[in-house]
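Holo model, adenosine-5'-monophosphate-propyl ester. Inputs:
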Amino acid sequence: MSSPEKNITSVLKETRQFPPSAEFVAQANVPGAERERLVEWAKADPDGFWAEQAKSLHWFKPWDTVLDWSNAPHAKWFVGGRINASDNCLDRHLATRGNKAAIVWEGEPGDSRTLTYQQLHREVCKFANALKALGVGEGDRVTIYMPMIPEAAVAMLACARIGALHSVVFGGFSSEAVADRNNDAKSKLVITADGGWRRGKVVPLKANVDVALDKSPTVEKCIVFNRCNTAVEMKPGRDVWWHDVMADESADCPAEPFDSEHPLFILYTSGSTGKPKGVLHTTGGYLLGASLTHKWVFDIKEDDVYWCTADVGWITGHSYIVYGPLCNGSTVVMYEGAPNQPREDRFWEIIAKYRVTIFYTAPTAIRAFIKWGDHHPQAHDLSSLRVLGSVGEPINPQAWMWYHTVIGSGRCPIVDTWWQTETGAIMIAPLPGAVATKPGSATKPLPGIQAEVVDKQGHPVPANAGGFLVVKRPWPSMMRTIYGDDERYKATYWSHYPGVYFTADGARIDEDGYIWVMGRVDDVLNVSGHRLSTMEVESALVHHPKVAEAAVVGRPDDLKGEGIVCFVTLKQGVSPTDELKAELKAHVVHDIGALARPDDVRFTEALPKTRSGKIMRRFLRDIAAGRQSTGDATTLEDLNVLAKLREDDE
Ligand code: PRX
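Output:
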């Protein structure tokens, strides 16, 4: 990485622009003039615009009304339409793409598998029948806690096929997190594996589930896929093997037509309180958002080999590994493990092996690649690549330029995609054949998306002034509610400005109308592109018997974007030792998962508080940042603007 001094330049001064090449424009799904047409059409006649786009899906019965916003902020899209997500991702491809690879999978130990659309369809149908045989039906909730193997997608699509809601829990979360999510969703069944490979070790998923199920009274059954051949305990009457339940199942399972608003899944994400929110997405609108944006933003063509490196445990995996690409009949690469196992060139090896054309990853990974050295990508043939994507956190211009030159050979448009679990699909991103990119900006809202940056009163801010990112019109893939908590849904997203969706991100718009997202203004951290609430970490800490009080803040981190710093006061008589610091870090990992491991635990006599007893977080953030920041990942100006916005939001 370059020197800190050089990196303390603001994105405010970033003026480089990269228009798409004439060659790219000539073949683009959406060239510039077409984008303009779509933008104007969506503004003038939003319902007509979305209705036309929705024709790209297969409907058993067409809708009567495009948008019903009468019960705002609970939207209904394509009201009266009947649809099945699994049918759209599988059945309708069989006639034309039956033998096309749907999932090309690379396991960590070097094993690999390819499933054609025909084969994937067969697996999904059989597994859907197996779920039915175990008593799962329409509206039931199913927790999926799986490694990155094709069966994770099979499980999701099987649930969708029979109208059960899946709740995928990232395999890096702890048993506590699994239990919490089981209980909030009142899951009836859990699908897991004995384990999954990560950095040469087996992550003991089934053992975690065993602990979780002791505290999950609603769960009746558990299906276990044998991935790693490790010994697991199978509880009689509760646990069944995947291969056993599949053995005699028929591959005949017609997709049922569900209401367009039938819930498709719940995905838990962190908010500003200690309790994760179950973001609820429904079928028609979500599927349209995921598939349309996949086609537009990645310029998807029939023969593309598309690889999104996310885990299916996150929204990126839902929308851009499973639903979007499979709905478009794409070939999707999927991998298990980590980018530096067995070696730091794993990704480049996979790209060369499968001739990947579209590659979608996160800035935190890009920063790690830079650290590991250019010789890794340079040792592989990356000439198949044609579009590069970024997601999950702001990408600093230095990382953007490296991605552009070293991975893309200066040839591939970079699509920096801003969106959230709640938005379901990409909201702000360049259409690669239409919009010139600027390093560090997600550029402009997609056609039909009315995103703006406003001040505290809701007025648009002048060029380059910081403000809050909001969305002013409902869009098809928006979340419908927080599962079981309509009030929290309204309070979190719709109470800042009447009728306007509040993203909790700070941003600015430059003089060309480009949006620069700076980061969260609430108490949500973004650690390596993963969302984590400061309150979740605090509540884990105060559960420890030696801790009296805790305050958790983020600090800029050159690799992870944000690191976790914990200020802890101890109970009387407890000594502040290094051993205790290590113990507290391990305790947080145990409670939440490895992604929440604190970078720093600092013991303090007291926490700084206002007279009314509120912890002075800005003060703690400044202290936490002071020691570490080189300003590389987040620029200093941005930090100042964010600090100000956070105060405004309080
Ligand atoms: O702060 C924004 C950041 O990630 C948050 C959403 O996190 P999550 O729901 O986990 O979804 C991540 C994957 C879509 C946002 O509120 N974020 C996401 N993408 C970007 C981003 N920040 C800046 N630029 C992005 N491209």
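Residues 269, 315-316, 391-394, 416-421, 442, 503, 505, 517, 519-520, 526, 531 surround adenosine-5'-monophosphate-propyl ester (CB under 6 Å). Residues 522-648 form a domain with the GMP Synthetase; Chain A, domain 3 fold (CATH 3.30.300.30).
Archived with the compound record.
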